[in-house]
Structures are given as C-alpha cells and as structure tokens.
UniProtKB/TrEMBL annotation:
Gene3D superfamilies: Homeodomain-like (1.10.10.60), Jelly Rolls (2.60.120.10)
Statement: the UniProt record of this protein carries the keyword Flavoprotein: no
MF GO annotations: DNA-binding transcription factor activity; sequence-specific DNA binding
Protein name, entry field: Helix-turn-helix domain-containing protein
Keywords on record: DNA-binding, Transcription, Transcription regulation
Pfam families: AraC_binding, HTH_18
The organism's place on the tree of life at top rank: Bacteria
Amino acid sequence: MEQYEKKGYLNSEFRLFHLTDQETKEVEYHYHDFDKITIFLKGKVNYIIEGKSYELKPYDLVLVRHNDIHRLVADNSVPYDRIIVYISVNFMNAYKTDSYDLSYCFQKAYTEHSNVLRIPSLEKSSLFGSILRLEKSFLDDGYAAELFRQVLFLEFMIHLNRAAMKNRLEFIDTDNCNSKILDILQYINENLDGELGIEILADHFYISKYYMMRLFKQETGYTLGQYTSQKRLLLAKELLLSGVPGTQACFDCGFKDYSTFSRAYKKFFGESLRDTQANHSL
C-alpha cells in the first residue's frame, strides 16, 4: 500500500524557524504528528490541504492541524520566504486555562472549513505588528535570542486568537476545489469508526463508484482506500497516546479485526501497538 510520509520532526514541545528557498523541491502529500503554523512572507505558492488548494498572499497564516494530509506547490521563479512553527499538543496545553486557550484559532479554522487566515487591513492590525516583530527577531543574535523569539511568538498567538475571536480575520475559502469531494472528505473524517466502503460512500452521495474513485484521486492525489485507511491509523495512534487500550482503539477507528489492525499499524508507523503504549507511559 502506498503511504504518506511523515515529514518534519519535533524533538521539543515547540520549534520556530525562518526559511527562504530560491528553489523549493516538489513535496509529495504528507502529514505531521504536531500542529503547524506557516506565516507566508513572499513567493508564489499554492498550499493544498485536505482537498482544498489555497493561493497564498503575503502575511497569510496557514494552519495545518496534526494528521492533516497536505502538500505545497511553489513557483521557483521567485524565492519562497516564510516563518514556520511546529507546536506539540503539550505546548498548547501548557498555556491553557479556564480563561484562554491558544489553540482556539485551530478550532475556529476547523469549524470554518478553512486552513488559511488573511488579515484584511495590514496597517491597522496589531496582529500584523506582532508578525513584523517576530520576523525581525531572526536578525537578533543577542542575549537569550531564542527565548526572546518564543516570547514574541506567544505575543503573536495572543493577537491571532484575539483577532479570530473578534472576526478580524478572513477565513479564506477557495473555488479551486470540488464541493462533492470536500463533502466526502468531511464525511470520512467524521465517521472513521463506521463503514466507509466504496459502495457505501457511492450510495450515500448518489454518485457512480467508478466516477467517485477517479474524481477523488484526481482532486486529492490519493485513492479513497489509501486515504481512509491511513486516517484510521492516524486516529488510532492519537487514541493510544491518550491512554485508550489497543482493542478499543481498533474498533473506535473502524477496524473489524484486531490482528489486521495490529499488522497495518506496525507496517504504517514502524512500531507495534505495544511500543506506542510503552513510549507513552515513559
């Protein structure tokens, strides 16, 4: 079975870096096991996330949740410049209280069905000001420069969430997608514990199964079976890491047979269910 590759590794709770590429290699569909924010600074880039394609403008904010399958296509005639942040769930939880939750922006992006946020009026935006300070901080190599960047990132996250709460950001929709495929993607992700066979999906969406399979591959770059199976396995790992027993995780993510589930899990992640559970308990 063809697999999506996990790209990017987070050895700490938080990682922040600034990248400029004159030539960006074509990246295949992949996922991360952490959340990711990209602050797009300049270039010509299309970001494709879970079936939607976004043409970015300077200072757009791209929010990719963990396990979202995505890729980007960059025009190498101009440099691709961006700030990237990798964020673990634990990092977000460390700044979560009854009064605030820094992951709110990810939650709202999910409910708005959009991964790209745009600042409508840059000159009037406190969020834009915090982005400029964060961008400038990469030129600072003085005392505690890395810690200073982290402080500025937290300032950025506060402004981002305030702007999201007060609707001062545009959640960018895109016409460059197929509404039927988006409906199918949403249905699959909301029903990973249920029956998601080709014929069941075709009947549910009143569409020819052969046309649906061809259209899904054409629009997303992956087959229905590949997408469904790997989304189930990614959910299973989340459940295991949250303390759910392997047998329950098996059925909660739509597998009917524990042995089949166990083999598929080890093939995909390169570790057994027991290894995942043991690492979680350390």
